[in-house]
Every structure is written in structure tokens, then in C-alpha cells.
Design goal:
about 190 residues, mainly alpha, Endonuclease III, domain 1, two-stranded parallel ribbon, about 55% helix, about 0% strand
Length: about 190
Amino acid sequence: MTARCSWPGSNPLMIQYHDTEWGVPVTDDRKLFEYLVLDAFQAGLSWSIVLKKREAFRSSLDGFDPEIIAGYPLEKLEQLARNPAIIRNRSKLKATVSNARAFLAVQNEFGSFSKFLWDINGPPRHNAFKTEAEIPASTPASDRLSRELKQRGFSFVGTTICYAFMQAAGLVNDHLVSCFRYSEINRESPSL
């Protein structure tokens, strides 16, 4: 049997996410925006709930296209707030629109959100945690990213959300050293 982190449990969606996405360095702007949106919606909820609703989010939010989302009128937000297939938190829905606008401004200034993000972070950090209890909820790097994003008009980007985003987008590799993905990601990680 392959050793993996214990947090996915036996949930097939969580296992697939763990085995194929979590901790893999991302440079694609659309994917980075998707992770920002989903991590904001996770606040106060479990990641399994967000993953279960991910495809409904993708369909409802125009494939996580920040250019389209930035132009959503109030009527669209009201429609989304009535959609039981997604998480209907009005504050998070409004933040999705304002974050899309801030995301586009960062792209305009830096050429891509990816460049901005990786310039702040530097190359992926490969932690060497042996137990999940060692994995922090936030770090000085997530504090810095949170400050940078807030200064640029993003919301729902506190340090804990930023650290979850950093884990998802591969800015850090927080797979346990005993997990098969830890060494795979270390080998595959580009030097950004």
C-alpha cells in the first residue's frame, strides 16, 4: 500500500486532489485564481465540502475566468446567492468579484499573477514534516503574501487562507516526508 498523508481519509475526491494537485507548483494564472477563489470559500468550512462543490463553482463562475467575473453585475451575484449547488455566502461571492478585479490589476502590472506570486515567494519550499501536527496554519511567508494581497485590494486573504493557497499552489510542499507525493514533488518541482 502507498503511504500518503492522512488528511484525505478515504474520500475519493480528497485522495484524487491530494495525489494529483496539492503541493504541485502552479504557474497558470487561471488555476491560481481558481485556488484563490476556492480557498476563500473554504474559510470556516472543510476542504471536502469545497471539493464536492468545485465543479458547480466552475460552471457557475464561468470557468474561474477573472475577466468575466470582474464584470459580474449585482443580478449575477443574486443569482449565485440562490444557487444551492455552490456555497452561497454573499460576502464571499462579492469578494470573488472584487478579487477578480484586483487579480486583473496585478496581471496588468506584472504581466501575470504567477510572476507576481513567485517573485514574492521565491522557489517552492520543501518542508520536511513528519507529522501533520507539525504543519503550521500560517507562516511569515503567508503573513507577507496576505499583506501584499490586501494592499492590492484583495479580501478573504488572511494569513491562514494564504497558507492554504500556498499549499495548494505548490509554493510550499507540506506533504509528510513519509508520503509518496513528497519526493515526487521534490523531483518534479521547477526552479521558479
